[in-house]
């Protein structure tokens, strides 16, 4: 395996672009986590209520209400009186993509030797911050590893 060269600072414009990309990933991560959880709750429990989201995410119900309002403005979530939260088709697409990335990252982490609990926990952050190039590399690695796991 090639050794990493000593780290040096990139040019300022590139450095700024990296941080901008990470801030955007942080913002999208919240939306993706919410719609993914809503999809999971709908599938597992038949309903997604703000109180359940708050409990599972470890945040206040006011935080959930503010985030759900933003998700509604973004066209990802609908609310129905006395019936909880539902995903729009756009929200379902975001949830499906987030779930696929999560599963890919978990499979990769398991393949490189992490235990299932750590792989699940670490995937929660990595799935939002890994680039498309990194995810493609994970998929290529898994294709080779799963074809010949030696």
TrEMBL record:
<dbReference type="InterPro" id="IPR001367">
    <property type="entry name" value="Fe_dep_repressor"/>
</dbReference>
<dbReference type="InterPro" id="IPR036421">
    <property type="entry name" value="Fe_dep_repressor_sf"/>
</dbReference>
<keyword id="KW-0805">Transcription regulation</keyword>
<feature type="domain" description="HTH dtxR-type">
    <location>
        <begin position="27"/>
        <end position="88"/>
    </location>
</feature>
<dbReference type="Pfam" id="PF02742">
    <property type="entry name" value="Fe_dep_repr_C"/>
</dbReference>
<feature type="compositionally biased region" description="Basic and acidic residues">
    <location>
        <begin position="12"/>
        <end position="24"/>
    </location>
</feature>
<comment type="subunit">
    <text>Homodimer.</text>
</comment>
<keyword id="KW-0804">Transcription</keyword>
<keyword id="KW-0678">Repressor</keyword>
<dbReference type="InterPro" id="IPR050536">
    <property type="entry name" value="DtxR_MntR_Metal-Reg"/>
</dbReference>
<keyword id="KW-0963">Cytoplasm</keyword>
<dbReference type="InterPro" id="IPR022687">
    <property type="entry name" value="HTH_DTXR"/>
</dbReference>
<comment type="function">
    <text>In the presence of manganese, represses expression of mntH and mntS. Up-regulates expression of mntP.</text>
</comment>
<dbReference type="InterPro" id="IPR036388">
    <property type="entry name" value="WH-like_DNA-bd_sf"/>
</dbReference>
<dbReference type="InterPro" id="IPR022689">
    <property type="entry name" value="Iron_dep_repressor"/>
</dbReference>
<keyword id="KW-0464">Manganese</keyword>
<dbReference type="Pfam" id="PF01325">
    <property type="entry name" value="Fe_dep_repress"/>
</dbReference>
<feature type="region of interest" description="Disordered">
    <location>
        <begin position="1"/>
        <end position="24"/>
    </location>
</feature>
<keyword id="KW-0010">Activator</keyword>
<keyword id="KW-0238">DNA-binding</keyword>
<comment type="similarity">
    <text>Belongs to the DtxR/MntR family.</text>
</comment>
<dbReference type="InterPro" id="IPR036390">
    <property type="entry name" value="WH_DNA-bd_sf"/>
</dbReference>
<protein>
    <recommendedName>
        <fullName>Transcriptional regulator MntR</fullName>
    </recommendedName>
</protein>
